[in-house]
Design goal:
The protein is an all-alpha fold and 190 residues long. Helices cover 74% and strands 0% of the residues. The chain has one domain.
Length: 190
Amino acid sequence: MAQALTLLFWGYLFVALRIDIGVDLLPDFLGYLFVAIGCLKLQDKFPMARKAGIFSIVLIFFSIPTFFIDIYKISGFEWQAYSITLMAIHLILVYFTFNFLIDIVKSDYPTITTRTKRNFSLYISIHLIQLAFLSFSINIPGNISLTIGLILTVATLIMTISFLVLIRAIRKTSLNFIGDNFIGDSPSPL
């Protein structure tokens, strides 16, 4: 389990960061590949991991343009529609990921169950608000739109960081739990 959670951490980190020098040095499709492998390693014990794995496989292919193009710097209806669709599919992936993370902590690590559920509620709520805002921002006056957009961007950044910290905490807790290697993986340091 520790190896699968490590893959999830690195996968979501690749998706969250963009280091652009003509192309993305941390490509999203590689991040989604890590997430897919991590989810598929957990699917036998946690059925929601299979659904997350399927969505991450879809995102491997759907996110390929982000390797070459920073879609958030390009204007145009098509790219805006693409970026909103990408964000929506990513949010569905994170929804399923949170569901099996809750199953992991609920069954084996009750000490961080409340934290996981709270992060889940906040993450999904803030990202849904951001998606709704992006869909309707064209109808909002410039200064108000800019202010709301900045606040939501900071909030989603904070929630993304807290999601990564949560995955790391669950991984660390799983390493401390006796008899953790239920799928035969060896713990590797993060």
